[in-house]
């Protein structure tokens, strides 16, 4: 990337392009494409608070990037301190509701105080810049407090989802080389205590590097505390030496902010490394671009912070942008099935960001629940986590948005750090089921096996051609694996692992993971395509599709289907759905097998575990870690089931 002084758009142009329609988007996108360094450099200078300005915007030595080299700043300062000199200091930063009904409204000023105190607690335990911390907590405000306290000191944090097992926790502690674990006695989910500290104790039997365990008391359940190693959060916080202020440590732009582990095909979890400046800038700008964020908005992303969506769009992005971010503990249907709609009505939520899986679950509950509540405060809806099928998109728009709220269907990954493809309200016309167009500064393409553009409406591989600020820097401790997995399939471009097509308007349609493509009698068929066809049927609430071996066709289509209320004739519906899919896609896509079920195997974050479904239809047994499942009995019932 070359330096140039030619491009210098005004801040007003960057901010106002969104209200100038498609023409404004095109102008902004084209200018960013022509001079990406100047584009991102101007935004970094305007939007972030720096201790030392950078000397170079982007240093690109494929596949390794450094952004804003030579600069120094602090993520926690940019999320908290800079708001304190403005009226925003009294604005609610985090609006939290626990599952039992307890509530906390935490202003930016109060959040700053809590973060400073916990940062001082960490310092009192000997922790300093460059140390590593594991955070294993329920969805309570102390989770973002711990993250921001680590960021304040330059301690690299890794949040481990509270549904992970002791074995999964141990693997992450050891790979990161953590010396401290921040946890809680437990949390609440579906009116039951979910204990966390026992999993920490089990994991630490083989993690001698952990010298401190800090435990927040949430449930009050009985747990074991090891002398010398384990400390109650409230005891450490009560020490007379703990001050309400802790200076934010300026760190290098490329200082690691966090490592987030994802599942790897080798069985060894991958530590996705995100650094400070570029990640913070892009998450904040996408909050403004995608969600059209306004000062009065109450914004709710329903994701658990244990996943990347929670990092980017519950904590760092919203707080850097000065938003009010809603958090909730527990399940969406407890204490009542309409809990989400109650929260939206009660807190006058204006922006709601959730997953297609959650939306399809809500469809199954029926329209009577959202119809009982005043959802008129909503002005924008979002979708994240996987492609949203048109039927779910239309239901979301009609029932929740009341035919007036735009839907931003966002494509991005743990590795990208921030949203890459999305509509921008008022700028990009919507198409149900399409993420629409890349955001300014993002160079996306759909290519064939040889890396050439696939052409209009041709299925291919979704790739990114140029570096972007929030991009993964490497896999923690394994740069060779990073290069091999993301940059070797098609040299010179980032391989996302997703299949996609691009229509005549340039809109991107993400079809799902490349490994979720079936080959039926020589026809390549995306599982997402079949799932979309199924849920478009008026009787179907949710569907998950996997391939099963077939001696004639190579692979056959196997469907797991949950029905809306009132549909019970499985035999007739089985025949009807086979015809439906054949009509919607083609005779070659006709399902070989349809299994009706009252539930699909999902993690506590709501993601369908298709791996288990593939095992069920191929071996009738389930292997591997299933501790993140919401309901283990679902797998047992499906394993015992046969075709309807």
Top keywords for this entry?
644 residues, alpha/beta, Rossmann fold, GMP Synthetase, Chain A, domain 3, 3 domains, seven-stranded mixed sheet, five-stranded parallel sheet, 20 helices, 29 strands, globular, disordered N terminus
The portion of residues assigned to helices is: 25-40%
Assembly level: single chain
Major pleated sheet: 7 strands, mixed
Instruction: Briefly note the CATH topology name of the largest domain.
Output: Rossmann fold
Structural class: alpha/beta
Number of spatially distinct domains: 3
Please count the helical segments. Answer: 20
C-alpha end-to-end distance: 58 Å
Share in β-strands: 15-25%
- Strand order of the biggest β-sheet: 5-4-17-16-18-19-20
CATH class of the largest domain: Alpha Beta
CATH superfamily of the largest domain: ANL, N-terminal domain
C-alpha Rg (nearest Å): 24 Å
Give the overall silhouette.
globular
Give the low-pLDDT segments: 1-19
Q: Which CATH architecture of the largest domain is right?
A: 3-Layer(aba) Sandwich
Mean pLDDT: 90
User: Can you count the beta strands?
Assistant: 29
What does this structure look like?
The chain contains 20 helices and 29 strands. Strands 5-4-17-16-18-19-20 form a seven-stranded mixed β-sheet, sandwiched between helices. It is globular and about 70 Å long. The N and C termini lie far apart (58 Å). It has 644 residues and is α/β, with parallel strands linked by helices. The chain has three domains: 11-66 and 259-443 and 468-492, Rossmann fold (3-Layer(aba) Sandwich); 76-96 and 110-250, 3-Layer(aba) Sandwich (Rossmann fold), CATH 3.40.50.980; 521-640, 2-Layer Sandwich (GMP Synthetase, Chain A, domain 3), CATH 3.30.300.30.
């Amino acid at each position: 990337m070359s330096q140039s002084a030619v491009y210098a758009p005004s801040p007003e142009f960057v901010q106002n392009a969104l209200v100038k329609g498609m023409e404004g988007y095109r102008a902004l996108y084209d200018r960013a494409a022509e001079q990406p360094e100047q584009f991102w450099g101007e935004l970094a200078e305007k939007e972030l608070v720096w201790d030392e300005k950078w000397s170079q915007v982007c240093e690109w030595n494929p596949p390794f990037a450094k952004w804003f080299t030579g600069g120094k700043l602090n993520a926690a300062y940019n999320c908290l301190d800079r708001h304190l000199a403005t009226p925003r200091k009294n604005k609610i930063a985090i609006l939290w509701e626990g599952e039992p009904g307890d509530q906390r409204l935490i202003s930016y000023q109060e959040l700053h105080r809590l973060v400073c105190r916990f940062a001082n607690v960490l310092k009192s335990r000997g922790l300093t810049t460059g140390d590593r911390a594991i955070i294993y907590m329920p969805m309570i405000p102390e989770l973002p407090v711990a993250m921001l306290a680590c960021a304040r000191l330059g301690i690299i944090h890794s949040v481990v989802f509270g549904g992970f097992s002791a074995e999964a926790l141990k693997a992450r502690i050891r790979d990161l080389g953590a010396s401290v674990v921040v946890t809680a006695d437990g949390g609440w989910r579906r009116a039951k205590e979910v204990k966390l500290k026992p999993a920490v104790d089990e994991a630490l039997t083989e993690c001698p590097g952990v010298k401190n365990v800090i435990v927040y008391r949430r449930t009050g359940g009985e747990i074991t505390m090891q002398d010398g190693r384990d400390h109650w959060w409230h005891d450490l916080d009560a020490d007379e030496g703990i001050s309400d202020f802790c200076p934010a440590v300026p760190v290098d732009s490329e200082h690691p902010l966090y490592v987030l582990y994802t599942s790897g095909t080798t069985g060894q979890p991958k530590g996705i490394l995100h650094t400070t400046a570029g990640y913070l800038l892009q998450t904040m700008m996408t909050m403004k671009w995608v969600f059209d964020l306004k000062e009065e908005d109450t914004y709710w992303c329903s994701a658990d912070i244990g996943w990347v969506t929670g990092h980017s769009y519950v904590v760092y992005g919203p707080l850097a942008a000065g938003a009010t971010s809603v958090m909730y503990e527990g399940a969406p249907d407890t204490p009542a099935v309409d809990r989400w709609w109650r929260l939206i009505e009660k807190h006058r939520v204006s922006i709601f960001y959730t997953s297609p899986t959650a939306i399809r679950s809500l469809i199954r509950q029926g329209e009577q629940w959202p119809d009982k509540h005043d959802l008129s405060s909503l002005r924008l809806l979002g979708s994240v986590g996987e492609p949203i099928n048109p039927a779910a998109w239309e239901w979301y728009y009609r029932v929740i948005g009341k035919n007036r709220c735009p839907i931003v269907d966002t494509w991005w990954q743990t590795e990208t750090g921030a949203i890459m493809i999305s509509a921008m309200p008022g700028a990009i016309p919507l198409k149900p089921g399409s993420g629409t167009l890349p955001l300014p500064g993002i160079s996306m393409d759909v290519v064939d096996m040889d890396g050439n553009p696939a052409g209009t409406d041709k299925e291919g591989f979704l790739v990114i051609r140029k570096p972007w600020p929030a991009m993964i820097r490497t896999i923690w401790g394994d740069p060779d694996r990073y290069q091999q997995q993301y940059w070797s399939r098609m040299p010179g471009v980032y391989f996302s692992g997703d299949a996609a097509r691009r229509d005549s308007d340039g809109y991107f349609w993400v079809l799902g993971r490349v490994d979720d493509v079936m080959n039926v009698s020589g026809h390549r068929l995306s599982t997402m395509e079949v799932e979309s066809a199924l849920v478009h049927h008026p009787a179907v609430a949710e569907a998950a599709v996997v391939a099963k071996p077939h001696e004639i066709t190579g692979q056959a289509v196997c469907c797991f289907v949950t029905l809306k209320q009132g549909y019970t004739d499985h035999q007739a519906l089985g025949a009807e759905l086979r015809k439906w899919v054949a009509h919607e896609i083609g005779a070659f896509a006709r399902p070989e097998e349809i299994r009706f079920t009252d539930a699909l195997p999902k993690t506590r974050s709501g993601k369908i575990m298709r791996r288990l479904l593939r095992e069920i239809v191929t071996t009738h047994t389930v292997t591997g870690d299933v501790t993140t499942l919401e309901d283990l009995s679902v797998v047992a019932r499906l394993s015992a089931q046969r075709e309807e």
